[in-house]
Amino acid sequence: MDRFDYALPPERIAQRPLDRRDASRLLIVDRSAGAWRDARFPDLAGELESGDLLVVNDTSVFPARLFARRSTGGRIEILLARAFDAEEPDRAQGREWEALVRPARRVRPGEALELLARDGTPAPKAVATVLKPVATTGTRRIRLDVPGDAWAWIAENGHVPLPPYIARADAPSDRERYQTVYARHRGAVAAPTAGLHFTEALLERLEARGVSRAALTLHVGPGTFRPVTAERAEDHVMEPEWYRISPETGEALARARTAGGRVVAVGTTTVRALESAARDDADRKPTGAPAGASGWTDLTICPGHRFRSVDALVTNFHLPRSSLLLLVAAFAGVDLTLAAYRHAVDAGYRFYSYGDAMLIV
C-alpha cells in the first residue's frame, strides 16, 4: 500500500467550495496516450459525444451529524451511519441507527443522551439512547426518541456531515453545496463529490450534444474516508453500502452499449454500483450492462480488476491510501494515476470533496 501514498501540502485541501459549481479545474487523463492536459470543468461538454451515457449517483446527503450532552455535561458527537429499522434505507423510519459516537469510551450501553438543537441548545423532549456496540464495526446502536417524524427532526436539527479533513464547522450554505443538483434519495452521509461540479446549465448543454443521462443510487457511508490498512489492497474489506439500479437505467446502459456509445460514470460510487451489479448478475446481458439490481455491496476495486460496465470516469482527487484512490488506479493504471496526481499537486489543483476534478477517458 505504500505505493498509493503521496505528499499533499495542507493548503491543497479545499476547505470551501468555489463560488460557482462549474468553476473548478478539470484534469483530462487519456489512458491510451498515457498523457493528461489541463482544462476547466465546463470543457467536459466538448469531451463527451453524442451517444455517450452519463451515469450519476442521485443519493442525497442528509444532516447526519448530531450533538448531544451527557448528564455530566460532557458533549458527545453522533454520526448517523445506517438506519436499522428497514432493509432498504429509503423505507426506514429513522428511529434506530448504527452510529459513530465520539468520544465512544465515555458512553455506556443504556445511557440516555440529551440531544441538542442545531443552535446548540437542548432540544425539547429529544433523547438518544445508546443500546449496544455493533461488534463488527466498532460503532454503536442507538435509538432516537424525538417529537414527531424522526427524519424531519434530523433535517431540522442535524449538521451537514462534512469530511474530517475540512477543518471548520458546517455552514448553512453547505446544505446546498455539499449536495448534487440531481440529488433525489436521502441516505448518504458523504456526497458523491464528482457530481458537485455539475450545474443544470451544463447538464442541458450535454443533453443538447446528444449525451444521455441515467441515474442510480448508492448511499455513501462513513467508510469512504477510512484508509486502507491492509498490506495488500485486495485484502481490504469495504463497509457495505446500499445501492439500487432501476430497470430503466439498466435499459439505458444496454442501449448505449448496443449503439456504441460510452458509459461515463460520474464518481467512484457510481462505478462501484455498476461493477457490483455486473459482478452479481449471472444472467448479465451480452452488452455487459446490468439489467437492474439492488442490495448491499462491499466490492473493493483495486488494480487488476476487470471493468465490465464503465468506459470513462469523472472523479475528484482522493485521499492517499484510500479505497477511492485504488479504484481510480485500477481504472487508469497505477503509474499514470500517480503521475497525474503529482502533476495536479505541482499545478495547484484543489483536492478532495470541495476540490477539482479529473476526467479519465
Annotation keywords:
nine-stranded mixed sheet, 361 residues, six-stranded antiparallel beta barrel, alpha/beta
Shape, per Cα inertia axes: globular
What assembly state would you assign to the polypeptide chains in this entry?
single chain
End-to-end Cα distance, whole Å, is 25 Å
Helix content: 10-25%
β-strand amount: 25-35%
Q: What spatial order of strands do you see in the largest sheet?
A: 2-1-17-16-14-3-12-13-15
Radius of gyration over all CA atoms, rounded: 21 Å
Which structural class should the secondary elements be placed in?
A: alpha/beta
Extract low-pLDDT stretches.
none
Q: How many strands, what sense, and barrel or not for the largest sheet?
A: 9 strands, mixed
What's the SSE blueprint?
Blueprint: E1 25-30, E2 35-40, H1 44-47, E3 53-57, E4 59-61, E5 65-69, E6 75-83, E7 96-102, E8 112-116, E9 122-134, E10 139-145, H2 150-157, H3 174-177, E11 185-188, H4 200-208, E12 212-218, E13 241-245, H5 247-259, E14 263-266, H6 268-280, E15 293-297, E16 312-316, H7 323-332, H8 334-346, E17 357-360
Parallel strand pairs: 1-17, 3-12, 3-14, 4-11, 14-16
Antiparallel strand pairs: 1-2, 5-6, 5-8, 6-7, 7-10, 8-9, 9-10, 12-13, 13-15, 16-17
Helix pairs in contact: 7-8
What does this structure look like?
By secondary structure, this protein is an alpha/beta fold. 20% of the residues lie in helices and 28% in strands. It has helices spanning 44-47, 150-157, 174-177, 200-208, 247-259, 268-280, 323-332, 334-346; strands spanning 25-30, 35-40, 53-57, 59-61, 65-69, 75-83, 96-102, 112-116, 122-134, 139-145, 185-188, 212-218, 241-245, 263-266, 293-297, 312-316, 357-360. Helix 7 (323-332) crosses helix 8. The protein is globular and about 60 Å long. The model has no long low-confidence stretch (mean pLDDT 92).
